[in-house]
């Protein structure tokens, strides 16, 4: 039995990634991945996401007493907005001057 239905295969990719897809279904999905670049790309993307999650889980979280990142981020956002507004005014003046 050959499975060519991509939606059937894609619904089972998370099970395959988690090692929970067994037997005939596993063989059918793996066979489909060999011949379908679109599903294989989906599979590779899913594996990459899971690898990133596993890597992130291995990193110790920030200490509770660590300083917050939000004040610095807010400052940078304000500065970039000001810079953008200034550039917009300069461009407007240049257009008015050139006419």
| Assembly level | single chain
Return Rg in Å.
25 Å
Succession of helices and strands:
HHHH
How many runs of DSSP E, i.e. beta strands? 0
Helix segment tally: 4
Domain tally: 2
Largest sheet: none
Overall pLDDT score: 85
Distance between the termini: 71 Å
Weakly predicted, low-confidence segments:
none
Shape: elongated
Beta-strand percentage? under 5%
Helix coverage percent: over 70%
Structural class of the secondary structure composition?
A: mainly alpha
Structural write-up:
The protein has 99 residues and is mostly helical. The chain has 2 domains: 1-59, no CATH class; 64-99. It contains 4 helices and no strands. It has helices at residues 6-17, 23-35, 37-57, 70-98. It is elongated and about 65 Å long. The model has no long low-confidence stretch (mean pLDDT 85).
Summarize the structure.
The protein is mainly α and 99 residues long.
What labels describe this entry?
single chain; mainly alpha; 2 domains; 4 helices
Question: How does the SSE layout of this entry go?
Answer:
Elements: H1 6-17, H2 23-35, H3 37-57, H4 70-98
């Amino acid at each position: 039995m050959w499975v060519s239905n991509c939606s059937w295969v894609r619904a089972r990719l998370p099970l395959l990634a988690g090692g929970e897809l067994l037997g005939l279904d596993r063989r059918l999905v793996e066979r489909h991945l060999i011949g379908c670049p679109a599903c294989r790309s989906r599979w590779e993307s899913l594996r990459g996401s899971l690898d990133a999650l596993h890597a992130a889980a291995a990193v110790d979280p920030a200490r509770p007493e660590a300083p917050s990142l939000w004040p610095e981020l807010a400052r940078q956002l304000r500065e970039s907005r000001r810079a953008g507004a200034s550039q917009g005014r300069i461009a407007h003046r240049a257009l008015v001057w050139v006419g």
